[in-house]
Amino acid sequence: MYSLLLAIIYLAFVSLGLPDSLVGAGWPVMHADLGVPVSFAGIITMIIAGGTILSSLASERVTKRFGAGVVTAVSVGLTAAALVGFSVSGSFWLLCLWAIPYGLGAGAVDAALNNYVALHFAARHMNWLHSFWGLGASISPFIMSYALTSGLGWSSAYRIVGVAQAVLTVVLIASIPLWGKVRPAPEAEHPAEHTDAAEPPGGGRSHVPLATALRIPGVLLILAAFFAYCALESTAILWASTYLVTDRGVDSATAAAFASLFLLGITAGRFLAGFFADRVGDKRLIRGGFAVVALAVVLIALPVGTPVPALVGLVIAGLGCAPIYPAIIHSTPANFGARSSQAIIGIQMAAAYTGSTLAPPAFGVLSAWVGAWVFPLFLAVLVALGLLMSERLNRLVARRGDEPDQGATAGAVGAAERRG
Q1: In 3D, which of 369, 367, 392 has the Cα closest to residue 377?
Q2: Which CATH number describes the domain made up of 210-419?
């Protein structure tokens, strides 16, 4: 039962990644067919991002009421319907309409799945699961490429992924009885969660209001760290090729190849991190990841006559980024208690989407003003912010007298509720 559900969750994480690259991969053809400017892609992505932020913030209340299994199945079904809707849309306004359920489904399933895995599975699975997300995100451009080169059109790519999501929805519906029967694995348990302080009266099923969750000591720190990390990742994905071409003299084909290696580095790095994540612990994975990215930024910025250090630095940056996202999510129940973890992970997802949405256009405005040379400096600021906030959280947890990497906030939830 444990292994069966885990296999289904792995498939669900592949499913999470599948739609993420479709808009970008197909837009050069889509915008021409729809008769809209290239820049209109930003409208669709903003609508999707807005939906994911809203559903992430609402995920705690919905998941508490219906359970992670039901929320995951319904959310994937919602995404499947939206993708099929994309495939039959002949106008831009219809794409915008279908982008609403697309975003709502993506945010809800992301928050629900991440919290369930953080509570029930070991750190290695969190890393491997996010590696499978990268696999899904890497597959979808090939699906779009196949659809375009075979003459099927971009709509067929959305239909293929939509049907795959619909099949997964059926599997998830059939698996709903399993979700409540799987108990946390011994290596995934967080001892302090079982104390009265970490689990205040009311039980695990009661709702934790957004305002209460935000007042828990340390939550704002981890939100800032998560915002910084996701801003860093999305900026590197979007602007690395431009920086290499305009500022380092790299030809466009080579720049595109190494920019893709950044994503492959994240995927491969998460797979490798899974083998030692349980021994190293979330705190060290986050610290080490930011440190490796800092080294990579130095290589990218080196003012030398060859672009080789910058190219190598981009690959190293992907490897450094790899464990940060999974480790932040997996450490949430330990840092803030199992009862509040769904609410806090929902807020973390909202912070992640906000950073991913706002940072790339902010860098675009900045680079248009001062030049693309500011790219490594922009990344360095985000690295420093993420590392500083995560280390401040570590010190806050340590002051509460918890063991390393088991930072349940003794009394924090109850104190926040009393203040609320």
Answers
A1: 367
A2: 1.20.1250.20
